[in-house]
Amino acid sequence: MHVTPAVLARGVRVVLSGNVILRGIDLSVNDGEVVALLGANGSGKSTLVRALVGAVPIESGEVELLGKPLGGAVDWSRIGYVPQRVSAATGVPTTAGEVVTSGLLHGHRLRPPRHARRLVLDALELVGLTHHLDRPVRELSGGQQQRVLIARALVRDPALLVLDEPVAGVDLPSQEAFATTLGALTARGRTVLVVLHELGAIAPLVQRAVVLRHGAVVHDGAPPTPAREHGDPDHDHVHPHDPDEAFADTGVAGLRWEP
Ligand SMILES: Nc1ncnc2c1ncn2[C@@H]1O[C@H](COP(=O)(O)OP(=O)(O)OP(=O)(O)O)[C@@H](O)[C@H]1O
């Protein structure tokens, strides 16, 4: 039986300011799969997810999302995207609930549906923030603001969720909350493509890892496992790593491939 992948990229090449950033990327994410996109700083992870959602132009190659070529034919209401390092806080005292509600407004829908409050509470529950519904987002921590943005992407119950470094620089409770969120999405059979610097707490939930290096895929398969002391549950993953370790060739901190 032919199954349409949720994300399909073939030979994606991206050139920005005259520099070749992506050198012909092939990537597929199947329905219900959780795939991590890993790689060193500057390897092209953000550029790839931005190209996949149409935020940067593709010089050559093809992208299909939910079975449709990138563009107007894609059902964007079924896709959630959380970009890297954006703040949910604005100058105005918008509450967490209002930010999440805005995720229900898209296309022709200018007013939230009648059951919006229930949907918003469900989305905030998925990220562990229901008790902050009425709090201005500017009063929340960076990690909590990132969770509000994830809830904003989740509120439409997207079939495909694309997240760019959702746990970079966020506090530990927010990292743990993200692992729980991801577990809930997996249980619901949602498809997730997540850019990460290291797998950390979500390693058990990731079915496949795609590693980029200098704008090309250098690994597509089993996720790397924590190496030596990194396998120790007490290890905190915050110290700098020896660049000579087995993973230096991929730039993925503190991890090594199973032999
Ligand atoms: N608009 C742009 N114009 C020119 N070069 C760019 C642009 N955006 C990104 N780049 C370059 O493309 C390369 C890949 O950047 P990208 O942000 O995709 O990497 P990344 O793997 O996501 O890195 P990080 O882990 O630091 O977020 C970098 O060398 C970056 O300087």
Automatic annotation (TrEMBL):
Domain ABC transporter: 7-239
Sequence ranges of Basic and acidic residues compositional bias: 227-244
Keywords (A to Z) from UniProt: ATP-binding, Nucleotide-binding, Transport
Region (Disordered): 220-253
Record flagged with keyword Protein biosynthesis: no
Gene3D superfamilies attached to this UniProt entry: P-loop containing nucleotide triphosphate hydrolases (3.40.50.300)
SMART domains reported for this sequence: AAA (SM00382)
Matches recorded under InterPro entries: AAA+_ATPase, ABC_transporter-like_ATP-bd, ABC_transporter-like_CS, Metal_Ion_Import_ABC, P-loop_NTPase
GO molecular function terms listed in the Swiss-Prot or TrEMBL record: ATP binding; ATP hydrolysis activity
Statement: the UniProt record of this protein carries the keyword Transport: yes
Similarity section: Belongs to the ABC transporter superfamily.
PANTHER family xref list: METAL TRANSPORT SYSTEM ATP-BINDING PROTEIN TM_0124-RELATED
Protein name as annotated: ATP-binding cassette domain-containing protein
The organism of origin for this protein: Pengzhenrongella frigida
Taxonomic lineage from the root: Bacteria, Bacillati, Actinomycetota, Actinomycetes, Micrococcales
